[in-house]
Amino acid sequence: MYNQPLDDAALIACPHCDLLQRLPDLAPGASARCPRCNLELWRHRRDSLNRTLALTLAAAILYLVANSFPMLGLTVVGHDASTTVLGGAQHLWADGREVVAGLVLFTAVIAPGLQIGFLLAIVLGAHRERVPKWVGLLLRRHPATRTWSMIEVMLLGVLVALIKIAELATVIPGVALFALGALVVVFAAIQSSFDPREVWDRIEWSDATP
Amino acid sequence: MVRRDTVSATGVTAMQLGLQRCEGCGLVSRPVHGDAEGRCPRCDDGVEYRKKASLQRTWAFLIAAAICYIPANLLPVLTTTTAEGAASDTILQGVVLLWSPTGWPLALIVLFASIMIPSAKIITLAYLLISVQRGSAQSSEQRTRLYRIVDLVGRWSMVDVFVDAFTAALVQLQPLMSVEPAPGLFFFAAVVVSTMLAVESFDPRLIWDSSSAREVRHG
User: Fold this and answer.
1) Nearest to A20 among B17, B207, B209 (CB)
2) Quick check: A36 and B212 in contact, CB under 8 A?
3) Subunit contact A13:B193, Cβ cutoff 8 A
4) The pTM is what?
5) In a domain, A210, yes or no
6) What residues contact residue B21 under an 8 Å CB cut-off, 6+ apart?
7) What is the pLDDT of residues B158-178, one digit of tens each?
C-alpha cells in the first residue's frame, strides 16, 4: 500500500533526528543544516549532473587502469615479484583465507566498480527528459556501494605495506598505484559534486495515481 | 495533510505527526489508515517510522564484534618464513615491528586504525545503545555527533587487512622469504565488518525520541 505524499513538497525530516522542517530554496553553492542536530541536509551543487558525468567517466578509465596493470613490484638479489589489486585477493584465496579474500575483492574491486557503474547509469538516465523509475532503484542502492567501496583505505594499506617491505627489498611502484591515487581524488570530487536530490526531484513516481 | 503552521520552532518530529521519512529517497509521506509499514510513493521502497529492530540488530552485531575482537588481537595475522624458520606476528607485534626511528608514523597509523578505532567503536556503540535504552534525553547533540564520527572513521580499520593481504601477495620469494596470512586475519576482518554493520543498523533518531516526547508534553 503506497503512502500518501504531502501537499508541501519542501517539507523534509532530518535523517538523524527526525525533526520536521521546510527546506529553503538555496542559491547554488549554499547549504542547509538541521537546526537541532546540525546535520547538513542539502547542499545545492552547481551543475551537478554534468560534472558528475565527467568525473565518473574519468573514474571509470582510472578504475580500468588500476585493475589491469601491476601495482607493486619488488626485486631482491635477483628475485622478482609483483602484484596487482586482484593479486592481493587471489593470494589470500589460494592460502585458504577465502572469506578475507572475498572481503578484499568486494571492498577493493567489486564495490568501487558498482559505485562507478551505478553512478554512470544514474547520471545518464537523469539526462533524459523524464527520469525513468529504474534510476531510483539504483539511486537507492548507491549509498551502500559507497559505504563498502574502500579504495582510499586500500591505498593507505598498500603504502604501509610498501614502506614495510622497502626495508627488505627494492620496491617498484606500478602504474596501478598512481591510478589508484588519482581515483581517490576523483571519488572525493564526485562526492562533492553529485546531488541526489536533483535526480529525486525529477524522477517518475512509482505511485502514478496521487 | 500538514498545514504550514504546524512546523514551529518547538521542533516536531515527523513521527509525532504520523509521518514517515523514506530511507531510500528522503520523501516524507503519510501512511494510509494508520498502517505502520507502507511503500514510498516516489521510489517504492518500504517505509517505516524507525529502522526495524534497530537496537536488537545493533546489539547482535556489536556482541559478535566484541567476541571476535579477542581472537583478532591474540591470534597471529601474518606468518613470515625465512631460511632461519617461521615467525608469527599478531597485530600489536606488527605495530612494534614497524616502530623504528623512521617508521614510527606508520606504526602510529596502524595502531590507531587497527587497535584504537575498533575498540573505541565498540565502546561508543555500547554507550549509545545503553543511553537510548535508558531513555536518556541529555546531550543528544553530542551523542549524534559521536554516532557520525563512528560512522566516518570505522572503514579505516580495514587498513590492516589490506596491509597484510598485499604484504603476503608481494613477498613471495621462495626459498628466501615468504609471508602468509594467519588465522587472526579472519577474526580481525570479522570485527571490522560487524562493527560497520552495527553502525548501519543503528538508528540515530532513537537518540532524540525521548527528548522529542518530552518537548511535546510541555508544549
Assistant:
1) B17
2) no
3) no
4) 0.90
5) no
6) A12, A13, A15, A18, B14, B27, B28, B47
7) 999 999 999 999 888 777 788
